[in-house]
Amino acid sequence: MSSSNREIVVSFFDKVWGAGEEAAIDRLMAPTAKIHGLPSPDGGSIVGPAAFKPFVRQFRQAFPDLKIRAFHIVCEGNLVVYHCNVTGTHQGPDLGVPASGSRIEIEGVVIGAIEGGQIQEGWNCFDFMTLYQQVGMLPLLSGH
Q: Is pLDDT above 80 for 116?
C-alpha cells in the first residue's frame, strides 16, 4: 500500500508542479480533498481540485521555470511525507507584485493522506517568508 501511495504523491509533484498538467489534479486529488498551509483567498484550507487549480496556475505563472526536487519521501500507512527543494525565477506578476526576475529557492514539507488512490488531505509547510523576501514582497531581515 505505501509504495502505491508514494507513487501517487510523486506523480502529483511530477505531473502537476513539474509538467503543469491540470488534468492530473482531477485524477490524483479527491473531489473533497482539503489542502492546508497554502496561501488561499480566504486564508483557510483549499478544498477540492477546482479550488486548487487557481493556486497552481498562479504559482506556475509566477515561476514558469519551477523545479521541485525531492530530498526525502517517507511512507507510513496512508501517509506520505515529501520533503523538497523548490527553485525558479520570478517571471510573472501573479504573486501580486511585478515580476522581479529574482531566483528563488525554498524548502518545504508536504504530508499527504491517501485513500482510494487519491490525495484526501494535504498539510503543507513551505518557507513562504523566504520566498516573499526573495521576490521583494518583504524586506530581508538584517543581522541574519
A: yes
Cβ neighbours of 23 (radius 10 Å) = 10
24, three cell numbers: 492530473
Is the pLDDT reported for residue 94 higher than 90?
A: no
- The predicted structure's pLDDT at residue 144: 53
CA distances from 23 to 17, 50, 54, 120, 136 (A): 12, 11, 13, 17, 32
- For the chain, the domains span 2-134
Return the C-alpha cell found at 47. Answer: 478544498
Return the CATH class of domain 2-134. Answer: alpha beta
